[in-house]
Amino acid sequence: MRIHHLGYAVKSMDVSIEEFVKLGYERVGETVADEARGVMIQFMNLGNYCIELVAPMNAASSINGIITKLGNTPYHICYSVDNIDEAVERLKNEGYVLMEKPSCAIAIDSNKVAFLYNKHMGIIELVEENEHV
């Protein structure tokens, strides 16, 4: 596993993009609407570092709970894996709880992603791919 990106929950996509640009980040592609998860996604790079800005699309968005509780904040680390099913099973055996089973992520070339939670680590995301965003 290697780090793919850091997920950052944001209330306003446009305002957050502006602020990260001020810090030297560059947009990677266009903002993507992930209807299945009810979020807007924008990847941003600073050198070799990649962040994923995640903003709610509506009141039912999966990210609203985090933003309501914590405000704008980093909330997950995504790791790239070669085989997502094997990685999920290994982590479940290590005490992680599967939050979202592997499914396609429109913002990452429709590669499979899965979200898991561990009380000592918080939320992690796995993405099955061999190329970096």
Please name the defining characteristics of this protein:
20% helix; eight-stranded mixed sheet; 133 residues; alpha+beta; 8 strands; 2,3-Dihydroxybiphenyl 1,2-Dioxygenase, domain 1
CATH superfamily, called what? 2,3-Dihydroxybiphenyl 1,2-Dioxygenase, domain 1
Low-confidence stretches: none
Helix/strand class: alpha+beta
Gyration radius, rounded? 14 Å
The overall number of domains is 1
CATH-assigned fold name: 2,3-Dihydroxybiphenyl 1,2-Dioxygenase, domain 1
Looking at the overall shape, the CATH architecture is Roll
The SSE string, one letter per element, is EHEEEHEHEEE
Question: Main β-sheet, in a few words?
Answer: 8 strands, mixed
N- and C-termini, Cα separation: 15 Å
Q: Provide the β-strand percentage band.
A: over 45%
Kindly report the spatial arrangement of strands forming the biggest sheet: 2-3-4-1-5-8-7-6
Provide the residue-averaged pLDDT.
94
Helicity range? 10-25%
Number of helices: 3
The overall strand count is 8
**Quick one: overall form?**
globular
Report on the architecture of this protein.
By secondary structure, the protein is of the alpha+beta class. The protein is built from 3 helices and 8 strands, in the order E-H-E-E-E-H-E-H-E-E-E. It has helices at residues 13-22, 64-70, 84-93, and strands at 2-9, 26-34, 39-46, 49-56, 73-81, 97-105, 111-118, 122-128. The chain has an 8-stranded mixed beta sheet with strand order 2-3-4-1-5-8-7-6. Strand 2 and strand 3 (39-46) form a beta hairpin. This is Lactoylglutathione lyase. One of its GO terms (molecular function) is metal ion binding. Residues 2-129 form the VOC domain. Pfam families: Glyoxalase_4.
